[in-house]
Amino acid sequence: MNKTVRIGFIGAGGIACWQAEQLKKIQGAQVVAAADVSDIALEKFKKQYNPPHVFKDWKQLLAMPDLDAVSVCTPNKMHCLPTLAALKAGKHVLVEKPMAMNANEAKAMVDAARKAKRLLQIGFQWRFTPAAQLLRKRVASGSFGDILYVRCQALRRRGIPSWGVFGRKDLQGGGPMIDIGVHILEMAHFIIGAPKPVSASAACYTYLGDKKPAALCSWGIGITRATRSRTWRSGSSSSPTADRW
Ligand SMILES: NC(=O)c1ccc[n+]([C@@H]2O[C@H](COP(=O)([O-])OP(=O)(O)OC[C@H]3O[C@@H](n4cnc5c(N)ncnc54)[C@H](O)[C@@H]3O)[C@@H](O)[C@H]2O)c1
Description:
- The protein is α/β, with parallel strands linked by helices.
- The protein has 2 domains: 5-123, Rossmann fold, CATH 3.40.50; 129-228, Dihydrodipicolinate Reductase, domain 2.
- The chain is built from 10 helices and 6 strands.
- It has helices at residues 14-23, 39-49, 58-62, 80-88, 103-116, 130-140, 169-172, 176-191, 213-216, 223-228; strands spanning 5-10, 29-35, 53-55, 69-72, 92-95, 120-122.
- Strands 3-2-1-4-5-6 form a 6-stranded parallel β-sheet, with helices on both faces.
- The chain is globular and about 50 Å long.
- Mean pLDDT is 85; it is low at 213-245.
- Nicotinamide-adenine-dinucleotide binds next to helix 1.
């Protein structure tokens, strides 16, 4: 493809910076805009990646006529609404994992992409690792016979993340399953050839652990933040119309 793909970020925090760093290595990709409700995040992103346009309101970013694609890097609760709006505005979308807070939101996003005839991709990068690619090839070529059972396991050895909104159920939507669990499930599903589900059932704990910060990670995080991270806050609407947090 000869055309330069002009990309805008909605949410300019940690993962947006990581993505922008990778995009610097890709010829034909240009970061042209970022939107974030936080001045601090926006300033940091601007300093590092110098996009010509920055906005406090992502709707202004979507109004840019010469924007080709959008990367939605907001907290989980804010994935659906900007994705729907971006697709409606004719942009291709990469939305970070987890795709959405629930199946209804996810279905609305897929429907919107089909209607707009635009690409919608989820930030499941592990499927592109050499190990996952090799396994998928080997499964497809029959090296392992018929796959009857898959066991997935993911462990974050540094404990419960204490930055961002990990301790906010209203914004995060869940615990380890919605955070790293989705990565490992998606990768397993991809490797075995994405069979159509017949049924699904699950059980999740809401308990988040009670280890002291020193045991959680080696760089030492304040007790207040670590304590907060194991206390879900409840009460806010799960409606995709609430676009601020
Ligand atoms: N693919 C991966 O491996 C991976 C890794 C890390 C994070 N993520 C995902 O990326 C998303 C963001 O995580 P993060 O670690 O970058 O969090 P973060 O807190 O560092 O960044 C989120 C940013 O979104 C901004 N924001 C919040 N509401 C907004 C709104 N209404 N409009 C514009 N900006 C808004 C915040 O101010 C913040 O700067 C999460 O969904 C997370 O699950 C994916």
